[in-house]
Specification:
Number of strands: 15
Strand order of the largest sheet: 10-11-15-14
Radius of gyration: 39 Å
Structural class: alpha+beta
Bound molecules: zinc ion
Distance between the termini: 87 Å
Number of domains: 3
Strand content: 25-35%
Shape: elongated
CATH class of the largest domain: Mainly Beta
Order of helices and strands: HHHHHEHEEEEEEEEEEHEEEEHH
Amino acid sequence: MADDFYSTLGLSKGASDSEVKAAYRKMAMKYHPDRNQGKPETEKKFKEVSNAYEVLKDPKKKQAYDQYGHAAFEQGGMGGSGQQGFGGAGFSDIFEDIFGMGGGGPQETRGDDLRYDISIDLEEAFNGKNIDAPITKMSTCPEKHSYKSCSTCDGYGKVRTQSGFFSMERTCGRCSGTGQEIKGKCSKCANTGRVKDNKKLKIKIPAGIENGNRIRMTGEGEAGELGGRSGDLYVFVNVNSHKLFERDKNNIICDVAIPFTTAALGGSIEVPTIEKKMVSINIPQGMQSGHKLRVKGKGMSILRTDTRGDMIVRVHAETPVNLSNSQRDLLSKFNESLGKENSKMTEGFFDKVKKMFNS
Ligand SMILES: [Zn+2]
Ligand SMILES: [Zn+2]
C-alpha cells in the first residue's frame, strides 16, 4: 500500500466518484488476469488497482482516506471510531470474495481414503490375526514420468472463466489443480499418474482388538493424481459375538451351569477358556446362582501388552429334572429336615417379601 490510491488509478487527489469509477474500469480491463495470462506482474498491478478502488468507491472510506491517508486503513488506524474490518487483511478478503483469486497456486491432489470392513471371531481378536485382503484401488503409475507446467492453466492449478464483469475461478480439469502435467505420453496411465491395481493388502490385526476399532494404514488408500500423496486405508473391525463368551473390556464373562448339589456342597468344576483349554475352579459351599468367580489372567489379551484380563465365571445352579422315585424321596426328606433356623438360602428373599407387605 505504498502508492497513493489516486495515483494508482492514474488520478490526482480528490478526484470525483465518477472519475474514480471510470479510471478503475479502464485499469481493470487493462490488467485483468484473463487478458494477461502468464504475466504475474500484471496480477499484482490488478490487485493494487482493485484495492485502491475498494476504498475510493466507498464514500465513507474515501473520506477517511482523504483525511488520514493510508494510516486510516492500517490495523487500528481508525483509532476510537469503532470501525474495523478494512485494514490490510480485510481488503484481501473482500478482494478474494469478489474475484476469487484467494489462496492461489497449484495444489497437491491427495488420493482418497479407503475403507475396508472385516469380521473376525472373538478367538481371532484374542490371538490377533494376519489377513491378506484383496483390494482394488488406484495406485501410482509404475512408469517414471517427467513433468512440465500444465498447458491449460500455465501451472496455476486453476482456470478463470469470465461471467459478465467478474471472473470465476475453478480447478483446472487438465491437471486437477496440481499445475503440472506429464511430459510425453504414458501408455500405462494415460497421463493420469495412476493405474488400477488389484493387490493383496497385508493387514495385521493386533491381539486384543475390540469390536468397532479401526486400524489406520497410512498411505494405503488411493494414490493421488499426477504424483500426489496417497490417501490412507481404514480397516473397520467387527468382532462377532461368541456362543460361550462375552467380552467386558479386558475380561471375558462365561456362564457356567453346575448341579445344585455342587452349589450347596461345594466342589471343583472345569471351565473352558478362550484359548480352548480347560481350567479347574473351586466352587465354595453354598454358592448362589448368579454369583461370580474370578479366574485371574484368563481373560482377553490387552492391546499392545503381553498381559491378559480375567475370566469371570457366572455360576448358575441347575435344577434336576426327571427324578427317580428314590431321588424324590431323598429330596422330600431333605426338605423336611430344613428347620426354620436352617433355611438360610431363602431367608433373604422372604425378608424382602415381609418388608414389602409390612410397608
Ligand atoms: Zn492445469
Ligand atoms: Zn504413467
